[in-house]
Amino acid sequence: MGKATIADVAKYCQVSTATVSMVLTNKGRISDVTRAKVLKAVDDLGYIYNQAAANLRHKRSNLVGLLIPDITNPFYAELIAGLSHWLEENDSLLFLANAEENVARQDKFIESLISQNAGGLVLCPAKDTDVNFLNTVRGRGFPIVLAVRPVGEDQFDYVGTNNFMGLQAATEHLIKLGHRNIAFIGGLEGSQTRSHRLGGYMSKLLEHGISPQEKYIVSCGASRPEGAAATKKMLEQNPEITAVIGYQDIVAFGVMRAIKDMGLTVGKDIAVVGFDDVPEAIDTSPALTTISVSAQQIGRAAGEILLTRMKGSDKPIKSLIFPPKLVVRKSCGSC
Amino acid sequence: MGKATIADVAKYCQVSTATVSMVLTNKGRISDVTRAKVLKAVDDLGYIYNQAAANLRHKRSNLVGLLIPDITNPFYAELIAGLSHWLEENDSLLFLANAEENVARQDKFIESLISQNAGGLVLCPAKDTDVNFLNTVRGRGFPIVLAVRPVGEDQFDYVGTNNFMGLQAATEHLIKLGHRNIAFIGGLEGSQTRSHRLGGYMSKLLEHGISPQEKYIVSCGASRPEGAAATKKMLEQNPEITAVIGYQDIVAFGVMRAIKDMGLTVGKDIAVVGFDDVPEAIDTSPALTTISVSAQQIGRAAGEILLTRMKGSDKPIKSLIFPPKLVVRKSCGSC
DNA sequence: CTGAAAGCGCTTACAG
DNA sequence: CTGAAAGCGCTTACAG
Fold it and tell me: Which of A224, B61, B171, B228 has a Cα-to-Cα distance from B36 of 20 to 30 A?
C-alpha cells in the first residue's frame, strides 16, 4: 500500500496539505472541526509523520550523536544510560558510535552525523583527537559538547569530573594508611585527563614529603589484561611498592588479578585504589576502594548543554565539573 | 556562509546538479575531466553530502535502530559492540535506545525510528512485548530482527543462543559434582527465554532422577541487589540447598554476595553457576563458572540479517542459534 | 557524456 | 481559519 503521506491525508479529508501540516505540528489557527477531520484521516490511513522530511525542510533536527571510546567499559555504559534517558525525555534520538580509541573512526562518525543532519554531538574524544578538526566542524554550526575527556583549552563546552582532586583524595587515603611507595598504573600517554590525575597524585605525595618516582608511574590501556601485565612488571621491578592506584577501575581489576596471581593478598600485602566506581567495584574481592564519579550524571548534563546549544544558545563556553568522591571499601585493608 | 549544497557545487564548476550528483554517487558515465572539476569544487567549497536528503528521495536509508532492555548489563554492552562494529563496516549509523523493560518506551522508540526513516531494527524485546504491534510495524515494510529474546513463534528473524542446552549443561555440571538441591534464581516471569532455561534445568534434574522442586525456583530482576535478596530468602527458607544457578551472571554476582554476607563460602558451602560469561565473571572471587554466550557474535549476526532484509531479501524467516558453552571456573569448588 | 525538470514528504510566508 | 505555491537538498528517468 505504500506509506501514507501528508498529501494522502489532505486528499482524504478534502483540505490542503498546509492545513494537515498545521494540525500535525499544532501551529496556526485551525478550527476544531477541521482538526477533528484531519485527525480522523490520520487514523484511518495509518499515517506516520515523516520527521526526516520535516527536518530537511526545517534545517534542524532532533538527532544527537554520542561517541565513546569503549562501550565495554561499564563507565561508558552508565554515561550512555544517563544521556539516553535525557534524550528520550526530550524526544531526541541517539546515534551511538564506539570509536575504540581510533581517531579515523571518530572523524568518520562525525562526518556521517553531519551528513545525516544530526543536530550535535556529545564527544568523549579518542586519544590524539585533533582540536582543529573539531573546530572546523563546530564552525559549520554543528555544536559539540565534550565529556569525560577535555581537549583544547576551554574551547568547547565540557562536562567531567575533577581528576586532580580525585587523585589527591586517593593518594591521601593511601598515605594516611602508611603507604609511601605508591605506584600509578594506567592511562594513555598524552592524555590531559591523565596529566590531571598524575598531578593530583604527585602533588599529594610532595605535600607529605614523598618525592614522586618516575619508575612508579606507568601507562597502559583500559583493560584488565593490560592492567594486570603492567602491574606484574611493576611489582617485580619494584618489590618495595605497597600500594597501587589504578587509573580506572577496569585497570584496577587487572591490578588485583596480578597481585593474586603473584601469590600476594590485596589489601594486606598491596593496597589498591581505582577510579570511576563502576557497579562491579563492590563485587570484587576484596571490594575495591575507588573514586566515585557519576557517569550517568555526566551523560545527562552533557545532553542538557547540547540541547540548549542546538536550540541556538550562544552563552559563553562552560565547563561543568562534578566533584569526585572517595569510596572506602576493603582493597586497602580494613582501616 | 551556510553549508554548500549540490547546487552550489554545480554552479561553481558550471555543470548541472545531475552531473554533480552522479559524480558523488559514482553513477552514470562521467568524463574524467568533469569528474575532476566537480571534485575540486567539492573540496574548494567544503561541501558535505546530505545523506538525509538523498534518503528522502531514495526512500531507503542506512539508519538502523537497536533497542535493548538494559544497557548497564555488560552482556548488552557486548552485543552493542558487535552490532555497531558491523554497522560501521557497512556505513550504517546506529540509533540506540534503552527501553528499561518498558514496552511503552519501546513502542515510542519504534515509532521514532520509522518517523526518522530508519531502515530497520534489531530488537531485544522488553518484557510483555506485543507481537501484534511488531507485526503491523513489519507490515509497513520495516524489517525487524529479534535478538537474545524470542517473541512470537518464529514469526521474526531471530538470533540468540540455545538457552535450553545452556541450562542443561549448567545443571549437569552441578549434578556431576554431587549436588541434588539446586536452586534456580532469576529471570522474569512469563519470559520465553526463562521457560527455555527452566526447561533445561528441570529436564536435566529428571534425567538424573531428581524431581524439580517449585520452591527452589524464584524469579527476580536482572541486578545484583535483586539477585542477592532472592538468594538470601531462598537459602534461609531452604537451608538444604547446596547449589544455585543464577539466571544471568549479573544475578549470580548478587547470589555470591548474599552467600558471603551469610557467612558462607562460595564454592565450598554453596556452588554457584551463572549465564552469559560477561567479562567480569573471571574477576569475581571465586571466579564464576558460567555459560558462555558470545554477545558480540549475536549482535553482529543480527546486523547481518537485518541489512540483507533492508536490501529487500525475502528469504524465509530464520533463527540463528549459537550454541552456549560451559566455562568451568572456581565458583563450584575445584573439580 | 551531460542537462532540464519533476519529485521525495514536509513547511512556511503570503493571500484571502 | 484555510489554500496555492515555492522550496529544503538530493536523484532519476528522459532527452539530446
Answer: B61
Residue B184 distance to chain A (closest CA, Å): 21
B174-189, pLDDT tens digit by residue? 999 999 999 999 999 9
Contacts of A279 in chain B (CB under 8 A): 72, 224
Cell numbers linked to A332: 586497602
What pTM, to 2 d.p., does this model score?
A: 0.90
CATH fold, domain B163-292, is Rossmann fold (3.40.50)
In whole angstroms, what separates CA A294 from the centre of its chain? 10
Give the integer Cα–Cα distance in Å for A47 and A6.
8
A265 Cβ under 8 Å from any chain B Cβ: no
- What tens digit of pLDDT does each residue of B72-84 get? 999 999 999 999 9
Cis ω before B74 (30° cut-off from 0): no
**CB-based contact, A240 to chain B, within 8 Å:** no
- B1-47 to CATH, choices 3.40.30.10, 1.20.1600.10, 1.10.3720.10, 1.10.260.40: 1.10.260.40
Instruction: Give the minimum alpha-carbon distance from A316 to chain B in angstroms, rounded to a whole number.
Output: 22
Q: Measured on CA atoms in the order A251, A254, A260, A264, is the torsion positive or negative?
A: negative
CATH 3.40.50.2300 residue ranges of chain A are 163-292
The confidence score (pLDDT) of residue B153 equals 79
pLDDT, tens only, B41-55: 999 998 999 999 999
